[in-house]
Amino acid sequence: MPARQRSGWPFPLSIALLLLMFCAAIGAQSVENPAYQPWRSARDRQDLAFLHSASTKAEAAAQGNASPGLLYSAALARSFEAEVALELGKKAEAAGAAESGIALARRLVEASPKVAEHHRILGTLCGQIIPANLMSAFKYGKCAREEIESALSLDPKSAWAYLGRGVGNYYLPEAFGGGIDIAIKDFRQASSLKPTLADAWLWLGIALRKKGDSSSAKRAMQKAMELAPERVWIRKQFDKT
Questions:
Q1: Top-level CATH class of 177-241?
Q2: Angle formed by the axes of helices 48-61 and 91-111, nearest 10°
Q3: How far apart are CA 228 and CA 112, in angstroms?
Q4: Is the pLDDT of residue 234 over 60?
Q5: Apex 110 CA angle, 93 and 112, nearest 5
Q6: Which one has a higher pLDDT value, 237 or 28?
Q7: 162: helix, coil or strand?
Q8: In angstroms, rounded to a whole number, what is the distance separating the alpha carbons of residues 155 and 135?
Q9: What is the DSSP letter of 34?
Q10: pTM of the shown model
């Protein structure tokens, strides 16, 4: 057998597999990657126990000198966990998940500072901790704003980045540069860039409701329900409007 085939794989096939693994690692660093469907489904069901277990395992895998793919997965899992904890009114659990995620996302940004999605997930996590602990608005508001702006400078057409900035602005007091009007503008931009992004329509509806425009809020939430019929929180928000 030729030396290059002793491993059991022909040399060209070995190279192809390595390239495939590399591409998969890059592709995994997206919230919409199919690999994260179980987490998205748990988020839709508001299954906090599942998400806590998944994020704990993902964070354990990302300890030490972890790859950007592992760090991103762990940070994303913590973000989903914090999101559902906030939806369920469990602020202490939301703050704990967000703080863990922020530590992971900071390592991620340090390792790969030119990737927009890495800044986006860090900014989102910093934004998520604010409603869990309003006293942290000064500390984490700056992080949320700067990281999302970094993401948008790297990828000006990222609907997820506009969504993250909108959520941050929704919770961030006007005194710190946030507010409902700014948030609505971000949510409209996100839904324009990606009309199938249910979260953009949901948050647009929530912001419009807070502004007092119930009819427009209902239309936006109806669109969100059509796009994500399994999402429990969308139904709850629609029923409240």
A1: mainly alpha
A2: 30
A3: 32
A4: yes
A5: 110
A6: 237
A7: helix
A8: 31
A9: G
A10: 0.83
